[in-house]
């Protein structure tokens, strides 16, 4: 008998969690994501997530515990401890309304920045692992090894110019600041749905590290011309007004942002090449602009601040 597909198996558990007292509910389960690194299904007001293979409970449990504690910043879990399903850790969460990708003018840049600032100002628990942003970027670069592409040498040169911590080859210089690790607009939801306050989701990369990493993706988009200057200014101003420690309160923020923004740019370019190759399609205009930025970065050295030059 063939094994039950993970989304189907996960849907059964989501239904049980959503309707513990009404097992024969009429709700339909919806698969929100089914990727190698995560499978996510929704059943009514409950979302179940099977985390990436290889995820350990010793790393995930303290991250979930932080979400349970910081209820005004992170979406709190429905259960305090992850379970195990088909050998993978599983967590349960309330459903929140995501950012509308078809309405860019309504993007909650101020809310995202304010939540990040509050997160960065929160003392982390002693048991929390390191923020995984640099490690994810390193994996994206490693995936290029099997894909011949004319841009790959430029990406590798831009990557090699970064300090060891940004390439996950040394500890991050900041090991006391609580960071999200993978901030983008898809990591915000309104809860209670549909119009509650914005909260951050996805604790898989949560940990201690360099807080500028959490600002790096919008910074990189701005540098690549993919984020309007007005939107970048809204995000940066809100972060500063909320007392975020990743950048100076006034003046040029780029010395603090340059290295993480370069790393996220290279990561994005590497993922674009891998995805295009897997689907046998050409790179689109946005992907080409990110790769062009890597070509430019390969010929200019990053700004190494005193604190982040390790």
Structure description:
It is globular, with a radius of gyration of 20 Å. The N and C termini lie far apart (54 Å). It has 9 helices and 10 strands. It has 310 residues and is an alpha+beta fold.
Structure described in brief:
Helix content is 37%, strand content 13%. It has nine helices and ten strands.
Low-confidence stretches: 306-310
Sheet with most strands = 5 strands, antiparallel
The overall pLDDT, averaged over residues, is: 91
User: Care to count the β-strands?
Assistant: 10
Detail the topology: elements first, then pairings.
Blueprint (H helix, E strand, L loop, with lengths): L5 H13 L10 E7 L2 E6 L2 E6 L5 H13 L13 E3 L2 E7 L2 E2 L10 H12 L12 H10 L9 H9 L17 E2 L8 E3 L7 E3 L6 E2 L7 H8 L5 H13 L12 H25 L6 H13 L13
Antiparallel strand pairs: 1-2, 2-3, 3-5, 4-5, 6-8, 7-10, 8-9
List the keywords:
five-stranded antiparallel beta sheet; 10 strands; three-stranded antiparallel beta sheet; alpha+beta; 310 residues
């Amino acid at each position: 008998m063939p094994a039950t597909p993970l989304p189907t198996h996960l849907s059964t558990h989501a239904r049980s969690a959503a309707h513990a007292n009404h097992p024969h509910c009429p709700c339909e389960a919806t698969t929100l994501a089914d990727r190698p690194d995560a499978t996510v299904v929704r059943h009514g007001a409950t979302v179940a997530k099977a985390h990436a293979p290889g995820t350990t409970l010793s790393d995930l449990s303290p991250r979930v515990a932080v979400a349970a504690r910081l209820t005004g910043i992170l979406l709190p879990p429905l259960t305090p401890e992850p379970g195990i399903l088909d050998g993978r850790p599983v967590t349960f969460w309330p459903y929140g309304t995501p950012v509308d990708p078809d309405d860019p003018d309504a993007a909650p840049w101020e809310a995202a920045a304010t939540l990040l600032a509050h997160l960065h100002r929160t003392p982390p628990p002693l048991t929390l692992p390191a923020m995984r942003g640099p490690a994810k970027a390193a994996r994206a670069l490693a995936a290029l090894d099997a894909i011949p592409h004319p841009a790959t040498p430029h990406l590798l040169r831009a990557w090699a110019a970064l300090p060891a911590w940004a390439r996950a080859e040394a500890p991050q210089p900041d090991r006391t600041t609580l960071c999200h690790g993978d901030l983008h607009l898809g990591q915000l939801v309104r809860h209670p749905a549909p119009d509650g306050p914005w909260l951050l989701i996805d604790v898989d990369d949560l940990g201690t590290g360099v807080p500028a990493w959490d600002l790096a993706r919008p910074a990189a988009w701005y540098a690549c011309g993919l984020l309007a200057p007005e939107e970048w200014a809204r995000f940066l101003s809100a972060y500063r007004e909320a007392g975020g420690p990743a950048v100076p309160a006034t003046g040029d923020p780029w010395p603090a942002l340059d290295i993480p923004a370069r790393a996220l740019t290279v990561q994005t370019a590497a993922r674009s090449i891998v995805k295009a190759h897997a689907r046998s399609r050409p790179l689109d205009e946005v992907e080409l602009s990110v790769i062009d930025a890597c070509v430019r970065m390969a010929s200019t050295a990053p700004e190494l601040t005193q604190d982040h030059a390790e």
